[in-house]
Specification:
It comes from Desulforhabdus amnigena. By secondary structure, this protein is of the alpha+beta class. Helices cover 20% and strands 32% of the residues. It has helices at residues 3-6, 38-56, 118-131, and strands at 21-26, 29-34, 66-70, 74-76, 79-81, 85-89, 108-112, 136-141, 146-153, 156-164, 168-169, 179-180. The longest helix has 19 residues, at 38-56.
Length: 188
C-alpha cells in the first residue's frame, strides 16, 4: 500500500487547496472543485435574495425564524461539506463555536448543480445529508433551468416536485412564498 493511501485526510488538508477552488472532505477523500461559474453563482445568489429576506428577516410578511448562509462549511460526522446554500431554524443554529465549520446539520440544503459537481452532489452528498437528518434538499440546475425539491422521509429522499423554466414555485420548507423561477436564471 502506498504512503498516500494510508494518510487520513484531515481538516488541515483543506488549507492546501488553491484559493480559486472549493474543498470538501467526502467519505474520507479530499474533493477539490473549481469555483462555480457565473450562471451557478447568479442562481444561488438570486435564490438567497428571494428566500433570505422573508425567512431570515421576516420581510415582506415572511415568517422569519431562519438563518440562511451561502457556502457554509458543515461538519457531518467525518465529512466536511460546502453546500451552495443552507438554512437552519434559528433555535437549532449554533451561534458560537470554536471551529470554522458548523457542527449542526442544517434543516435545508440547496446544491446548485454544475457539470463538474452533479455526480458528487447526487451520489455522494445526498446520502450524507440523509444520514445526518437534513430535512429538505433542493437540487438547482441553472443549465437546465430546473429545481428538484426533496423531503427526507424515513431516511430516504422523497421527490416532492420538479419545477422548471418560467414556473412559479411554492415548495417546502419555504412554501409561504412563491418563487418566480425565471428570476433565478442568468439571461441577457
Amino acid at each position: 500500500m502506498s504512503e498516500t493511501a494510508l494518510k487520513k485526510v484531515t481538516y488541515e488538508d483543506l488549507y492546501s487547496i488553491p484559493e480559486n477552488a472549493v474543498g470538501e472532505i467526502i467519505d474520507g477523500e479530499l474533493v477539490v472543485t473549481p469555483r462555480p461559474s457565473r450562471r451557478h453563482t447568479f442562481a444561488s445568489s438570486a435564490l438567497d435574495k428571494e428566500i433570505g429576506p422573508p425567512y431570515q428577516f421576516g420581510r415582506g410578511g415572511g415568517p422569519g425564524g431562519w438563518i440562511i448562509i451561502i457556502e457554509p462549511e458543515i461538519s457531518l460526522g467525518e465529512d466536511i461539506l460546502v453546500p451552495d446554500l443552507a438554512g437552519w431554524k434559528k433555535e437549532r443554529f449554533p451561534y458560537s463555536e470554536e471551529t470554522n465549520w458548523i457542527s449542526v446539520p442544517p434543516d435545508w440544503v440547496c446544491e446548485v448543480l454544475s457539470p463538474g459537481t452533479v455526480r458528487t452532489d447526487r451520489t455522494r452528498k445526498m446520502p450524507i445529508y440523509a444520514r445526518h437528518g437534513v430535512s429538505h434538499l433542493w437540487l438547482m440546475d441553472p443549465e437546465a433551468e430546473m429545481i428538484e425539491v426533496f423531503r427526507l422521509e424515513s431516511g430516504r429522499w422523497a421527490l416532492l416536485g420538479v419545477f422548471a423554466e418560467n414556473d412559479r414555485m411554492k415548495a417546502e420548507p419555504f412554501e409561504e412564498i412563491e418563487l418566480a423561477l425565471n428570476d433565478l436564471w442568468l439571461k441577457p
